[in-house]
């Protein structure tokens, strides 16, 4: 279905727009940066569970070139999967590049075809799911080079943060809504009885900082009593995070001479930021208050 066909129908009208504003570009940049830590931890855990080692890279020009090449290939493959999904639902994909407000460079896949909500969500999350599954399978099949998949899988997942944001924004609309991609935004068409969902990024900032402050405060307050409890229970070692890696937040070890602890402030900040990110994402798509019906012509 094309956009003009929607306008010819009397039962559907434009009810909302989601635009890539400067504020949203800043938020998505921050969210993507924080999610690098989240997804990096996840895929390192997957790698460790498969290979039983933490992996590592030698910092040579060749390995750096290979890493950059795998990232670029993954980004292009990400957009190609968007295009395949669009074609599966009857659309004709177009590809391009852009820079949002001189801040956020991006690749995009767009189309003139309008899709229903569930179709659009499938198009949005297809690259994240497919590349992640293929990457984990590749780790299992090729364990000797499994560490090479960590960086591209992390970059792909972090790069999909905009797709996840969009999914969180539209999933609260009813299934019958229609969505038209505007390359740097989205137009939502629905019925006059449909409710408006709050997709503004403004609430995300406050929700993010609330989540961040709660977590960082809890970590600071609880680390001291946690150390005492671990010592009282004669625990030999305890790690919060990924042991023997750059993702260790807190580490406790005990011996005959007493106990020792190691705290990484940067990792504490990153962990708190990730939880704040998740909290902000969950809260960002809550319905507008008060909810109202759309009974005006656009």
Report the structural category.
alpha+beta
Task: Report mean pLDDT, rounded to a whole number.
Answer: 83
Give the beta-strand count.
Answer: 9
In spatial order, strands of the major sheet run 1-6-5-4
Shape: globular
Helix content: 40-55%
CA(first)-CA(last) distance:
20 Å
How would you explain this protein's 3D organization?
- The protein is α+β, with helices and mostly antiparallel strands.
- It is built from eight helices and nine strands.
- It has two domains: 3-193, no CATH class; 207-274, no CATH class.
- It is 54% helix and 17% strand.
- The strands form three sheets. A four-stranded antiparallel beta sheet has the order 1-6-5-4.
- A hairpin with a 2-residue loop joins strand 8 and strand 9 (258-263).
- Helix 2 (22-51) packs across helix 8, helix 3 runs antiparallel to helix 4 (117-141) and helix 4 (117-141) runs antiparallel to helix 6 (161-170).
- The longest helix is centred in the last third of the chain and has 31 residues, at 202-232.
Short description:
This protein is an alpha+beta fold and 298 residues long. It has two domains: 191 residues, no CATH class; 68 residues, no CATH class. The protein contains eight helices and nine strands.
Break the fold down into its secondary structure elements and pairings.
Elements: H1 3-8, E1 13-19, H2 22-51, H3 61-88, E2 94-100, E3 104-110, E4 115-116, H4 117-141, H5 150-159, H6 161-170, E5 178-181, E6 185-190, H7 202-232, E7 237-241, E8 248-255, E9 258-263, H8 265-284
Antiparallel strand pairs: 1-6, 2-3, 4-5, 5-6, 7-8, 8-9
Helix pairs in contact: 2-5, 2-8, 3-4, 3-5, 4-5, 4-6, 7-8
């Amino acid at each position: 279905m094309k956009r003009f066909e929607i306008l010819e129908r009397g039962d559907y009208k434009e009810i909302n727009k989601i635009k890539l504003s400067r504020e949203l570009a800043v938020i998505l940049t921050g969210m993507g940066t924080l999610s690098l830590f989240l997804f990096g931890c996840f895929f390192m855990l997957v790698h460790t569970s498969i290979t039983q080692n933490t992996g590592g890279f030698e910092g040579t020009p060749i390995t750096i070139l290979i890493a950059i090449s795998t990232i670029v290939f993954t980004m292009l493959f990400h957009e190609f999967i968007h295009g395949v999904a669009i074609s599966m639902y009857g659309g004709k994909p177009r590809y391009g590049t852009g820079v949002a407000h001189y801040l956020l460079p991006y690749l995009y896949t767009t189309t003139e075809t309008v899709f229903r909500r569930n179709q659009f969500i499938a198009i949005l999350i297809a690259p994240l799911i497919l590349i992640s599954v293929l990457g984990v399978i590749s780790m299992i099949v090729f364990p000797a080079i499994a560490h090479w998949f960590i960086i591209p899988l992390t970059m792909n997942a972090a790069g999909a943060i905009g797709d996840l944001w969009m999914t969180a924004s539209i999933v609260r609309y009813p299934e019958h809504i229609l969505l038209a991609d505007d390359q740097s935004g989205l137009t939502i068409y629905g019925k006059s009885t449909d409710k408006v969902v709050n997709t503004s990024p403004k609430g995300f900032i406050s929700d993010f900082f609330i989540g961040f402050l709660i977590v960082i405060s809890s970590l600071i307050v609880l680390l001291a009593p946690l150390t005492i409890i671990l010592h009282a229970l004669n625990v030999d070692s305890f790690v919060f995070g990924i042991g023997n890696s750059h993702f260790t937040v807190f580490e406790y070890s005990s011996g005959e001479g007493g106990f020792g602890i190691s705290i990484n402030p940067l990792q504490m900040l990153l962990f708190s930021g990730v939880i704040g990110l998740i909290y902000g994402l969950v809260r960002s798509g809550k319905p507008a208050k008060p909810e109202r019906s759309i009974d005006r012509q656009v």
